[in-house]
Amino acid sequence: MPPTPIPSHTQAEADHAIPQTVLVVDDEPVVRLSLSARLKRLGYHVIEASDGRVGLDLLRRERPDLTILDWMMPGMDGPTFCEQVRQDPELQSSQIILMTGHDQPDQIAEGLARGADDFLSKSASKQEITARVQAGMRTAKLLRTLEQARDEIQRKQEALERELQSAAEYVESLLPLQGHVLPGVRVVHAYRPSLALGGDLFNVVPWGDRLMGLYLLDASGHGVSPALRSASLSTFLRGDSLLHQVGSNDPGVILTEANKRFPLTEDGNYFTIIFARLDLDSHRLSYATAGHGGAFIHRQSGTITRLTQPGLPLGFDITNIYSAAETIIEPGDRLFFLSDGLYEAPSPTGERWGQDRLEEAVHRLGQAPLEDVIPAVIAEAIRWQEQDLFPDDVAVMGLEVDV
């Protein structure tokens, strides 16, 4: 047997299972009683107050769907009541019908200006009362729906922010500890994602007491997806993983393999990266780059040596072969790896800060402690763009060799 159809009025009955509430505020008992009786016959739940102050307390406590309010009352009149409601953030969306026996245009204009939503004459017919109350209830229902949607969005946003904060803490846990990473080698860094989660990561890869790798990668895009992709690449770049999967600590070989494993995403996102190997016995620094230009050596003599190579970012061409270049690191030299979010900081007119200004700032700071140099350089970029928040992720890793 087919199921019995549900009558069309069933949903309407369900909607009215919990009656909407009207607050009636009037100092005249007869008027209040008459209006309340009429509203109850229409199916509404009615609460009453004999003056404005009591009515305001009831409005705060009961949060009725609609308030019908007399204009002339002792103590607190109707327009003052309306003003009090509109000044309270918790009550601002309350629907108020102001009831008066003198519905003159000037009076109506004053009532609306002071916070009423509608007017109702005390001499109004049953039909007009019903129509105005129903119109007020429709507006109240819409506003309640919007408030509930807003609250739900806020709850979801707060939950998302908690999750993002947890993910951000995980991402930051992937960064190296500051201080001596090998005997005679110190690392200082700064990390300022433009959002809660950044796509820039850097780390140190120790291969014993006299040999180490280090890298800085920059994922295109912002937010969760780039951060997850960066975390995946950083896992591949761990020391034990590299030796197992690549079989070499040569920077060119490492990037060539990474290029195969991390192709362009469907959305066209990619990585730029510099990977270097430092041999403390020979003082040789071998490095390879994939679309990354933010690395240089600040020599103890004061000169700047940029570590640049022409080449595509990772993933553009999986057949690409990356090769390593080489330079010497002397005691007292400082190596800087940084993301383009720092030197591409825009001024209010759109001009980029640029690598030349960045390197000039490092040069002016000279041999100041590395712990002071990096924050000072970031402060220079902030002054340039005239705001504290960078439009792109900013990552800086400084390494100082003392042996």
Outline the structure in words:
Residues 6-16 have low confidence and may be disordered. The protein has helices at 10-15, 29-41, 52-62, 78-86, 105-113, 126-173, 224-236, 239-245, 251-261, 340-343, 354-365, 370-385, and strands at residues 21-25, 45-49, 66-70, 95-100, 118-121, 179-182, 185-192, 200-206, 211-219, 271-279, 284-290, 295-298, 304-306, 325-328, 334-338, 394-401. The protein contains twelve helices and 16 strands. The longest helix has 48 residues, at 126-173. It has 403 residues and is α+β, with helices and mostly antiparallel strands. α11 packs antiparallel against α12. The termini are far apart.
Count of DSSP helices?
12
Query: What is the CA-CA span between the terminal residues?
Result: 91 Å
Backbone CA Rg:
35 Å
How many discrete domains? 2
Predict the CATH topology of the largest domain: Phosphatase 2c, domain 1
Strand content: 15-25%
Oligomer: single chain
Largest sheet: 6 strands, antiparallel
Helix and strand pattern: HEHEHEHEHEHEEEEHHHEEEEEEHHHE
The total of beta strands comes to: 16
Shape: elongated
Q: Which spans have pLDDT < 50 for at least 5 consecutive residues? A: 6-16
